[in-house]
Amino acid sequence: MNESSRRRPVTIKDLASQLGIHPSTVSRVLHSEAEVARGAASAETARRVRELARKLEYYPHPQAAGLRTGRTSLLGAIVPRLSDLVLAMMYEGVEEAAAELNYSAFVMNSRDDPGEQRRKTEIMLARRVDGLIFGDAHLDGTLMPELDRRGIPFVLMNRRLDGFPSATCDDILGGELVADHLWEKGHRQVAVAAGEAYASTGVDRTSGFVNRWRGLGGDIEPGAVVWSGFDTAGGSQAVETILQTARVMPTAVFAVNDFAAIGAMGALRSRGLTVGQDIAVVGFNDTPIAAQLPIPLSSVRSPMLEIGKAAVQLLRKVLNRESTDSVRLKPDLQVRESSG
Amino acid sequence: MNESSRRRPVTIKDLASQLGIHPSTVSRVLHSEAEVARGAASAETARRVRELARKLEYYPHPQAAGLRTGRTSLLGAIVPRLSDLVLAMMYEGVEEAAAELNYSAFVMNSRDDPGEQRRKTEIMLARRVDGLIFGDAHLDGTLMPELDRRGIPFVLMNRRLDGFPSATCDDILGGELVADHLWEKGHRQVAVAAGEAYASTGVDRTSGFVNRWRGLGGDIEPGAVVWSGFDTAGGSQAVETILQTARVMPTAVFAVNDFAAIGAMGALRSRGLTVGQDIAVVGFNDTPIAAQLPIPLSSVRSPMLEIGKAAVQLLRKVLNRESTDSVRLKPDLQVRESSG
DNA sequence: CTGAAAGCGCTTACAG
DNA sequence: CTGAAAGCGCTTACAG
Fold it and tell me: Cα(B215)–Cα(B176) distance, rounded to whole angstroms?
């Protein structure tokens, strides 16, 4: 059982009294970047302060500093759900990059529900975060323009939205890579499990694919593009719909998310089709399971960790009032047995 | 682009001056639980304070309050990796339960590395968290006893450790459920992909299985229990080892984690075996993909979200210096095609 | 019932 | 180069 008799952390005052100097001098030294502490204190004083701080394991009290400076060094991230591996990976990137900049990051789930997005945003603001990162932007949403009007610093990751800085995968390119690959493999009848129509990821991957496909001279049957959830259930439903409504059976399915692809594979198998032989399937994100599935899944590798880190860098610029350009990181295609 | 001209949040002083009363009175009212504000202010004053607070959308400044009270209302959680769905789900539970108690939760990854566990713990403590939740306890680790000696309030989740309060799945029971099921299905030669030997999850699931199996009159071949990673790679490696070293071919494999089970399925398939016909596979945690795999995976359902919530409740008790008993939540077995 | 003061730990202009 | 003061927003014993 815990004793809960934590010893009181060392403060600036402790350091000052032990050194026989004023707390403000300690603070100045600890904040001077240069080892020599130009203007903050004499080289000798600075040395003694730093030495004692190290010896006593002094750590600044971030809340106290924040109270004084008006900044909390807190970043808030809102994602559809953390149990979605794609967002979890991106958030790992956010966490790492934030820690490097001496920020702390929070994360909350919105479940892609507009009410929850608002609610969670207000909670984050009540906690006085310095800025926000949204992984759940809706193309038809009203929250982002509103926050912008209120002057709240934020950036987007994962999904983009016109007019706001975002760190995303180049999803259009990702879709194009899949079109090139399937065309080259000789497929001419294809279908798309396109994801949610409110998410730029689904929209961009799909439009990249469709436009390139047409550019190559291919046709997309009406009813061959089905909007659906990004999860396994969404993928299997999309395939059911495609199989029921398509006039011509597709020989390949592009699912804009690996989990949807896994759901699609399940649905195809229960129709008696062998993926990789009777029908090709390609997913998106190249999550670790893709390569390890019983039938390894071809997938577009997106740099999820890097997207999270890029989002933090972008937010840093916004907070510093520097100019920002959205970042689109390049994906590449991993071809495996499911479409080999 | 963001304007970054956020309007200053409303403070207690703002409320007080608008009402012509003293800030301390406002604070007292806002902290009195009862609507009538017994002892804090007159019913009329209390009413006016609450009304204005609502109207101006006053939110307390948690850092300022914490500075005064000595508590930050911050909880730190450390997990092996957030991109492990099991931990991500548990952390969702942590986040939700913490928010309900007006706590904010942080999470960091330790990658199951003892150095990182220490480092991340110290970062959390430097941020003055009120308490910690560890999802990455090692059975042979030295960190927990050390933190206990230092009087730092913490609890464990996911993995247990003797002598410390934990919220876990009843992993022994989970292993027993699998043994009963496979025995009943007529299997007599079994193997186990047992997970990491430093994690109570793997150890308990395995010992629950093995002990029950022997109790039923079964034998476990030497070399039929293989320690391995919890991920897909670990599962496929474990199966490779089992197939190479087992004297008798098993007819069933119990993998203590769904991702390991997926890896196992892949390895079995590349040996030409059809899971569910030639060989049974059972996983653990019943993650959402289990049911949606091309060959649906039998799995022990563990209440991941509830484990996270229970950990927060446990930590709350520790912080209140109430007595705590470890919580072991009951799992159940979902039988599917992979072992049907 | 309500005001006034002190102080949590830190930072930052301001003197000297 | 260094000290002293003020103040961030809040809470809490203490008076009256």
Answer: 10
**Cα B120 from Cα A221, distance rounded (Å):** 53
The nucleotide lying nearest B27 (C-alpha to C1') is D11
What is the second-level CATH architecture of the domain A68-168+304-329? 3-Layer(aba) Sandwich (3.40)
On the question of pLDDT at B272 being above 80, the answer is yes
Q: Once rounded to an integer, what is the mean pLDDT over residues B60-73?
A: 92
pTM above 0.85, yes or no: yes
pLDDT at residue A166 greater than cutoff 80? yes
For chain A, domain boundaries: 12-60, 68-168+304-329, 171-302
Superfamily of chain region B71-168+304-329 = Response regulator (3.40.50.2300)
Domain A171-302 -> CATH class = alpha beta
Per residue in A307-322, pLDDT tens?
Answer: 999 999 999 999 999 9
Maximal C-alpha separation, chain A: 86
Q: Which residues of A touch B66 (CB under 8 A)?
A: 63
Structurally, what CATH architecture does the domain formed by B171-302+334-339 represent? 3-Layer(aba) Sandwich (3.40)
User: In degrees rounded to 5, what are phi and psi of residue A15?
Assistant: -60, -45
As a whole number, the mean pLDDT across chain B is 93
Q: Which of residues 47-76 of B touch strand D (CB under 7 A)?
A: 60-61, 64-65, 67-69
Confidence band of B238 (pLDDT split at 50, 70, 90): very high
